[in-house]
Amino acid sequence: xxxxxxxxxxxxxxxxxxxxxxxxxxxxxxxxxxxxxxxxxxxxxxxxxxxxxxxxxxxxxxxxxxxxxxxxx
Length: 73
Ligand SMILES: [Zn+2]
Hints:
This protein is an alpha+beta fold. The protein has one domain (12-64). Helix content is 27%, strand content 16%. The protein contains one helix and four strands. The chain has one helix at residues 21-40, and strands at residues 8-9, 16-17, 51-54, 61-64. It has a two-stranded antiparallel ribbon with strand order 1-2. Strand 1 and strand 2 (16-17) form a beta hairpin. The radius of gyration is 14 Å and the shape is elongated. The termini are far apart. The structure holds zinc ion (ZN). Zinc ion binds at residues 10, 12-13, 17, 55, 57-58, 60, 62. Residues 10, 12-13, 17, 55, 57-58, 60, 62 line the site of zinc ion (ZN).
């Protein structure tokens, strides 16, 4: 297997791993734009990411559609 270029995937969550907060926030920003555009056209975006969080498994950042981590095991 040859190494994947960015972004790498987290072994615990299987999510894309962003190297820093800034990168993760940019993803959220794109998701937000996607949702806004979809709403303007009366459709729904499949982008649901609303927040970022640091991951202690991979040391990177992930995006999630959950509002709170409280219920996440
Ligand atoms: Zn991770």
